[in-house]
Amino acid sequence: MNCSPFDLRDYFLKELPDSERRQVEAHVGNCQPCLEELDRLHLTEAALFALREEEIPRRIGFVSDQVFEPSAWRRWWAGLWGSTARLAFAAAAMLSVAILVSALRRWSRSPFGPALRK
């Protein structure tokens, strides 16, 4: 509103004191452009209140989401490290293999290991 010292938005939102509000009402009654501006503000308010409130979606799904899913190897690896029981079993299996390999190497170096092979 260029012709009035008051902002019509302040009037519309009821943020003006009573004395200024009365002055704006008197001005709007005589000024066609200001009346049209006030009507547009009422129309905008009506349009906004006509919209129904919806919750904003947290995440939008895309067709390409499968690209971001971990591979089978990564899922297996994460499952291994995420489970204490699986991790303990893998550690025990590795220790058992290490003990077995060590025993076999010692046995092959002993005097009884090569003799039994002949």
* Structural class based on helices, strands and sheet pairing: mainly alpha
> For the terminal residues, how far apart are their CA atoms?
111 Å
Order of helices and strands: HHHHHH
What is the 3D shape?
A: rod-shaped
- Which parts are unreliable, with pLDDT below 50 for 5 consecutive residues or more? none
Q: What is the tally of helical segments? A: 6
Number of strands: 0
- State the major sheet: none
- Classify the beta-strand content into a percent band: under 5%
Arithmetic mean pLDDT: 81
Gyration radius (Cα, Å) is: 41 Å
What is the helix content? Answer: 55-70%
Textual characterization of the structure:
By secondary structure, the chain is mostly helical. It has six helices and no strands. It has helices at residues 8-12, 18-30, 32-50, 72-82, 84-109, 112-117. The chain starts with 7 loop residues before the first helix and ends with a helix. The mean pLDDT is 81.
Tell me briefly what this model is.
This protein has helices at 8-12, 18-30, 32-50, 72-82, 84-109, 112-117. By secondary structure, the chain is mainly alpha-helical. The N and C termini lie far apart (111 Å).
Helices and strands in order, then pairings?
Elements lengths: L7 H5 L5 H13 L1 H19 L21 H11 L1 H26 L2 H6 L1
Helix pairs in contact: 2-3
Provide the descriptors you would attach to this structure in a database record.
118 residues; rod-shaped; 0% strand; 68% helix; mainly alpha
